[in-house]
Structure formats: C-alpha cells, structure tokens
Amino acid sequence: MKEKLIVGLDGVEPGDRALTHAKRLSKLIGDCTIELVYVIEWSPYSFQTPEENALRHKRRELEIKTAMDRVITPALEALKKEGYLANGRVLHGDVAELLNSVAVKEKAEQIIVARSKESGFAAKLFGSVTAKLVMGADVPVTVVN
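and the corresponding structure tokens:
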C-alpha cells in the first residue's frame, strides 16, 4: 500500500524546510506519495461590508488560483522532475483543521510542517497554527525547525 505524507506549504522558506524533510522521508519509506497542501487562512473574526461580501467568492477563487500558480504548481513540477510521486491542492479556511482533515481523508502516515516564528498578541490569543495542529491532529505531526 502506498504511504502518504501531508506537507503544509506556506510559500516561503519554512515550507521549503518541511518539503525537504518530506522528500527525505519519502526516500526512506519507498512507495510514498507527497501531498502538498497550501491553506489560505480565513478568520471568522473579520467583519466585512456588504460590498466585500458580494465580491468574496470571486476574490476567494482568485486567491486559490494565485496560490496554485505561485506555490503548488512549481513545487509539484520540481518534485516530479526529481522522481517523486506528488499531488497538491489549495484550500481556504483554518490551517490546522484543514491539514488534519486532508490527512484523515487521505489516510496519511503523518503531517509535516515547519515551525513558524509567529509571535505577539495574535499568537498569545489564538496560539500558533503548529501548536493547534500538534495538539489536535488525528495522525502524527512532524515539526521541522
């Protein structure tokens, strides 16, 4: 049975570290697929005007396309060029919840993310995405420093 690793990408250097680790694990495992996931965060605490709500769906679709074009597609092309089996997707919502739900749906062996440098008031109030994922995931989580 083909094993699956879920990799949380963020489009910047920490996501690259997570992907590098996933590639190393994939080689050790052998028959493995790397599932790339980029999540566009959505906060239920933001308030929008009626005009913003009218444009919300169109803006969401544009954000997903942009993330796919700038982050997922180039990463997939590079992985496939190096001989890895890989898939990718862009989702919109709560990062920790969506990474976990993809891992459960795909019956993944683990989720791989990189530690963020989130700090300040928001991190204290809501906690970091990594901490939420580690505490609430249904599969093992590897946090790359």
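(Above: one complete record from the training split.) The chain is about 50% helix and 25% strand.
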